[in-house]
Amino acid sequence: xxxxxxxxxxxxxxxxxxxxxxIALTILFERLISFIFMGSPSKQAEAHLLIAxxxxxxxxxxxxxxxxxxRLLQGMLQASKEGVKDLNRVAIRLGSFELNxxxxxxxxxxxxxxxxxxxxxxxxxxxxxxxxxxIEQAGGQVDAQALAGGIWEAxxxxxxxxxxxxxxxxxxxxxxxxADKRAHSMRNFASLMLEYFPTNTRGNATEEEKASxxxxxxxxxI
Length: 222
Prior knowledge:
Layout: H1 2-10, H2 12-36, H3 45-55, H4 59-64, H5 67-81, H6 87-102, H7 106-137, H8 144-196, H9 207-210, H10 218-221
Helix pairs in contact: 2-7, 2-8, 3-8, 5-6, 5-8, 6-8, 7-8
């Protein structure tokens, strides 16, 4: 009953915000499932990789690693076997690719979370305009109770907008923190590979490559 009344009184703005909620929940659910089943290296993976690199036999350790860290190192190892000398550029390219995969949908969530309160405010302004138009048409002789009801309906959209925006932005922040942690992990493994892998000759990444991603990650650390 309350939900039906909410949509009736909120009008088109509430319907749009409901669409926002559906899209945001879909993206959040997909991202959470993706992060849960992404896989990650074991706690001892870095130490084992270091020993294997010093012994010159990292293949088995790298092949057994899971998650974006494993794919990054496997790509670097494969590039080295194919004769690529500058593994730094390979790490930049693969690291940026993996980070972009993890951040899929983040911009959409940010857009939804930041514009939902504005839509709610727009609905409130429209409602207030209608309320004052009624006052003008009635020559100022408006029942206070009826006026309060109209203002309540106008304020409803702001409340709905905030109710949509707050959880979306909170969960987006948590997802971004998780992506940053994985970027830091990729950076550590890639740096270890670059330091100890015998066929690597480190090159200096160009400023364009270093800026190939909008947040601090693998591309800024190598």
